[in-house]
Amino acid sequence: MGASHVKTPVRLSRAPFLRSISFRKPEESDDYPFTVPLFSRDFGMAFLKPVSIFVGENGAGKSTLLEAIALHCGFNAEGGSRDHQTHGRSDVDPVLECLRFSWLPRVTTGFFFRAESFFAFSNYIDQVSAGRTDAYSLNGGRSLHHQSHGEAFLALFSKRLGGRGVYIFDEPEAALSPARQMTFLTILRRMELTTQCQIIMATHSPILMSYPFGELFSFEGNGDLREISFKASEHWKLYGRFLANPEKFHDALFEDE
């Protein structure tokens, strides 16, 4: 009697799909975007968890790197998915050419959210959803312009997106009140628990950077890149000192006025 053959179960890959990024600065690179601190030197970073959060001051390179990742995934530079495309070059194309990406496996589905261009994206969603039933529309049959900015953002991500893919958020707190930021944390958790969503986010919000299941990368003003705890971030420390004694900060801010 022949030996029986037992099929080995196929294990689906889990997030993170994008495992690492490396950057090599070109020799002739004295102009923008190579004047941005992060891109003033070679660097590498590894993504070990499904949720990665970028923190740091404006101009350190967070948004530039996010946009480069989004372009590599095939997303529109102004926000959206692979289906929402506009033509033309991006200012971050020179950076993209110097980046190397390691995937396991390569995933090109997902979404790129930019608060500054969400109005234009809402127009696009309403156009492609016109005349469709709720089951097939992306806005649930209700124009995103007929909802508050925060409502539209949460509705889109909690009800219409979240399948297998890479989801990139550039300062989503711009669209969200503190209470809605907490709701957004629950959306992140639900997305993460599917094991099929990788989230990469840049934020200035202590609420969002406190997400306990992710990894936090600090983009330093001198170009350094390091992993930290959220309570070690300068944002958290500053907010903590301010909330503990706002009058002291006000006295210092307005002493010369």
From TrEMBL:
Location in the cell: Cell membrane
GO CC terms: plasma membrane
**InterPro entries (alphabetical):** AAA+_ATPase (IPR003593), ATPase_AAA_core (IPR003959), P-loop_NTPase (IPR027417), Rad50/SbcC_AAA (IPR038729), Siderophore_ABC-ATPase (IPR051535)
Single biological process term from Gene Ontology: double-strand break repair
Primary location group: membrane
Span of domain AAA+ ATPase? 48-224
Report the GO molecular function annotations.
ATP binding; ATP hydrolysis activity
Q: Tell me yes or no: is Cell membrane among this UniProt entry's keywords.
A: yes
Instruction: Tell me the keywords, alphabetical order.
Output: Cell membrane, Ion transport, Iron, Iron transport, Membrane, Transport
Q: How does it sit in the membrane?
A: Peripheral membrane protein
What this protein is called in its record is: AAA family ATPase
> What species is this protein from?
Pleomorphomonas diazotrophica
